[in-house]
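Reopening this one. Same input as before:
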Amino acid sequence: MDRKSFIKKALMAGSVGAIAPTILASGKNTKAPNRATILQEGFNHIPKKEVQTMKTVLHKANSRGQANHGWLKANHSFSFANYYNPERMNFGVLRVLNDDHIAPGAGFPTHPHQNMEIITIPLSGQVEHKDSMGNSGVISPGEIQVMSAGTGIQHSEFNKNKDQDLKLLQIWVFPNQQQVTPRYDQLRIDDTSSVNGFKQILSPNANDNGVWIHQNAWFHLGEMNSEQEFTYQLKEKSNGVYIFLIEGNIDIHGQTLSARDGFGAWDSEELLIKSLAKSKVLVMEVPLHNN
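Same output, byte for byte:
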């Protein structure tokens, strides 16, 4: 698929509430609900009745949607572009988690976004960014970039290097405010303070550690040596947590995760993470419903 067609398809996937063709319910195809309905329902696996014990969902790395466009090799934790799975639409307000490998010199030409919080975390290589707000620059490993698309922005992203693949995580979060003024921010993760190897890299608060977004969400990035433990305490009891293991092996309450596995949990105020090997972990706490 060429780049313009891929981008068009991806943007359509991001607007799932407006254009999703069908939603699977009780084994029957029904007319797609509007965006507000989907946000109200939250994550597909979350029960409507309150329960006292922690609930979880495991997304193994090899169960993700995969696409090879030549210039782009992508793995989608949730439905995106040509990958559509009604059981994998989102985790609460976490809409997109893409693990992208971009060929040297290749990338996404200028394209639009609206009413979405977009987070980019380079893992290796460098992202060259330009947008309609006048921002241009390079995002490198050890940095995080965020854009609040709000009323609308256009931007491009390319692999700056001509001799090295670019590997990055791109994450989309539904905002809790519509039609905000677009904004851009970029920050070195190394500049944030660490607690047991975990750094807060995103929050709802402009004056807190990391970048901020229009959503009651917190992201932490941690590097653990083998046989370490870290207890994550939720900021908001009603939130859920989605953990993406970038590299290594960990155990979460008896469930073993390998590199690129995803693990969602809700109805719990804390999560105990144990490293079985040297590991790099992304912890994303997000609302289950967009109020």
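So the earlier flakiness isn't reproducible anymore. For the record, Helices lie at 3-14, 16-19, 35-41.
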